[in-house]
Amino acid sequence: MNPSTSLADLAWEEVVALHALFEAWLREGGPDVDFSECEASMGRDFRMISPDGAIMERTAIIAWIRGARRSRGPDFTVQASDPLAIWASESSVLLEYTEQQYRDGRTTRRRSTALFHADPAAPRGVVWRHLQETWLPSGEEDQG
After folding, report:
1. DSSP percent split of the chain into helix, strand, coil, nearest 5
2. Rounded CA gap, 31 and 75, in Å?
3. pTM of the model
4. pLDDT digits over 75-133, tens only?
5. SS (H, E, C) 83-134
């Protein structure tokens, strides 16, 4: 890790890279990607609260993603934008961002808040510890 790179910057790099991996992994006809990078980026105690309120632990999340290989159409895209570091310490950062997916002619958006912890063994120096996603109404402009 470059000493001048902040934990928030590393977390944002992680968000962008993992969403690119998800797009490639899930898209029908997508390129081959190394799924172990996904697993290595999630902390052992990682959990997620989906936009619908379901709570998933790391093992279930990884199993779901593995099983969803090439399950989206060839036009599937997923992008993250608007990063905002809400809180940070020497070893952790809480990052908010917006995720947009396009699938089957429909765009959905969600606001996500993710907690990352520094881990030099992780692909980009941080691991996901917690993720909370909330649906954004169609057409809502970001207030952030």
Report:
1. 25, 40, 35
2. 13
3. 0.92
4. 999 999 999 999 999 999 999 999 999 999 999 999 999 999 999 999 999 999 999 99
5. EEEEEECCCEEEEEEEEEEEECCEEEEEEEEEEEEECCCCCCCEEEEEEEEE
